[in-house]
Write a structure and sequence with these properties.
Structural class of chain B: mainly beta
Distance between the termini of chain A: 39 Å
Strand order of the largest sheet of chain A: 1-2-3
Number of strands of chain A: 3
Helix content of chain B: under 10%
Distance between the termini of chain B: 36 Å
Largest sheet of chain B: 7 strands, antiparallel
Number of domains of chain B: 2
Order of helices and strands of chain B: HEEEEEEEEEEEEEEHEEEEEEEEEE
Structural class of chain A: alpha+beta
Number of strands of chain B: 24
CATH superfamily of the largest domain in chain B: Galactose-binding domain-like
Largest interface: A-B, 25 and 41 residues
Number of helices of chain A: 1
Radius of gyration of chain A: 12 Å
Strand content of chain A: 35-45%
Oligomer: heterodimer
Radius of gyration of chain B: 23 Å
Shape of chain B: globular
Number of helices of chain B: 2
Strand order of the largest sheet of chain B: 20-19-23-16-17-22-21
Largest sheet of chain A: 3 strands, antiparallel
């Protein structure tokens, strides 16, 4: 079968200088990525998919 | 090929609507390798050498591993090829697959008129060379991966460059969405488990990687090599000569999907501190991205606070299709509203399909 899935092991919101969540810091296939909150981005789309499936939780920003 | 034949083929290309920008493939001559020219121990999906050509596995892809490289071995008229070499063998089972794919945005293939009675025939041509002779496949996905068609080709002689052309009728069934998402995709299978071996077929809705009956089991041979270059996808039933583009043109096309920015000592950026530990630095991308990209900062570099020091942390607080914002943290080192230079940051920008 075609495989577009990603191995996402961590996910945490990153806040901007105004304190608003602006991206997600995630470890995807072993790489730390800062992912914008835009469903057109393939990484964010996969994050949303795994959150909806109950396989991933996005931690609050520090 | 005779001159008369070449003129006839160009006439056909004209009839099909393109004498320039015929090739819908980006980096088909494997010139651009922004991520590096070689990766070893590859055993998961990803872009490892030549831009826009992604190593892909289905159902885990088994336990084998490869080295993927941009190499200079190439047929006359080309300078590079993409090379895959097996370094850990595996026998693929069930629905496991290994191959190379190339994805094209839907908005760039609207002229194919898929989903209508006017759907255009397309032709894929490429140069290929392998240590393993036999049957290989080419699967074309359309409509965001929901429709596909499969054909086979043969490598006749080991370790010799061979030119292949495969023509596919257009898909009259399903339109390709006119957007920035995956519209068309080429998938070159190199190996597959038994569940995904099929006789070549016309347009269907399998949404699955497939390989043709007789597909060479590439992963089963240690040291097996497969190389490809000169990949062209064009409208019509005839392959025309490869449309060469300059390195600069090809790089710019690749940078819509991936870009690296490295801040050197002679190319610094500077930002403004908004707290005693954080400063923001906004920077533009060289090329507008397909979508807001994901960013990584594998090297956090240095910041100048009177002397060059290593930051506490580098993170990305936002990105649009035009640029991003870094937050370079250095605990207790900044004065609010002051500016600070940064250098040696390595920034990777990914907007791949």
């Amino acid at each position: 079968m075609e495989n577009n899935s990603m191995n996402i092991t961590t996910a945490q919101y990153v806040a901007d200088m105004d304190g608003n969540n602006s991206s997600v810091k995630a470890t995807i296939d072993g790489q730390e990525l800062f992912v914008p909150l835009d469903p057109a981005n393939r990484h964010y789309a996969e994050i949303l998919k795994q959150v909806e499936a109950g396989d991933l939780t996005i931690a609050d920003a520090e | 090929m005779t001159k008369a034949r070449q003129l006839a083929d160009l006439g056909n290309a004209y009839d099909d609507g393109a004498l320039s920008n015929r090739n819908l493939i980006i980096n088909g001559a494997m010139q651009v390798a922004q991520r590096g020219t070689s990766a070893t121990g590859v055993n998961s999906n990803g872009f490892y050498a030549c831009d826009r050509f992604e190593y892909s596995e289905g159902s885990g892809g088994g336990s084998g591993a490869l080295t993927i490289s941009q190499v200079t071995d190439s047929p006359d008229g080309f300078g590079n090829s993409l090379k895959l070499e097996v370094t850990t063998t595996d026998t693929l089972t069930a629905g496991e697959n290994v191959g190379i794919r190339h994805r094209i945005e839907g908005q760039n293939v609207q002229h194919l008129a898929f989903g209508s009675s006017s759907a255009k025939t397309i032709t894929v041509s490429f140069w290929v060379k392998s240590t393993l002779t036999g049957t290989y496949g080419l699967q074309v996905f359309s409509a965001g991966g929901t429709r596909d068609i499969l054909k086979a080709y043969t490598i006749s002689v080991a370790d010799v460059w061979e030119y292949k052309t495969l023509t596919f009728v257009g898909d009259t069934n399903t339109a390709i969405a006119n957007d920035v998402n995956r519209g068309l995709e080429l998938y070159f299978p190199l190996d597959a488990g038994a569940n995904d071996i099929f006789d070549p077929y016309t347009w269907a809705s399998t949404a699955a990687f497939r390989a043709p009956t007789g597909q060479v089991n590439f992963m089963a041979t240690n040291g097996a090599k497969w190389k490809i270059t000169g990949v062209q996808l064009e409208v019509g039933d005839t392959a025309t000569p490869f449309e060469h583009r300059s390195y600069g043109d090809e790089l710019a096309k690749c940078q819509r999907y991936y870009e690296k920015i490295y801040l050197h000592d002679t190319y610094r950026l500077n930002g403004v501190a908004w707290s005693t530990e954080s400063q923001n630095i906004s920077f533009p991308f060289t090329v507008t991205k397909r979508v807001p990209p994901s960013l990584s900062v594998p090297s956090i570099g240095q910041v100048f606070t009177g002397s060059w020091v290593t930051p506490t942390l580098a993170e990305v607080t936002g990105a649009t299709i035009n640029g991003g914002t870094l937050n370079i943290k250095k605990t207790g080192s900044y004065t609010v509203k002051y500016g600070y230079f940064i250098r040696y940051q390595d920034i990777r920008i990914d907007a791949e399909l």
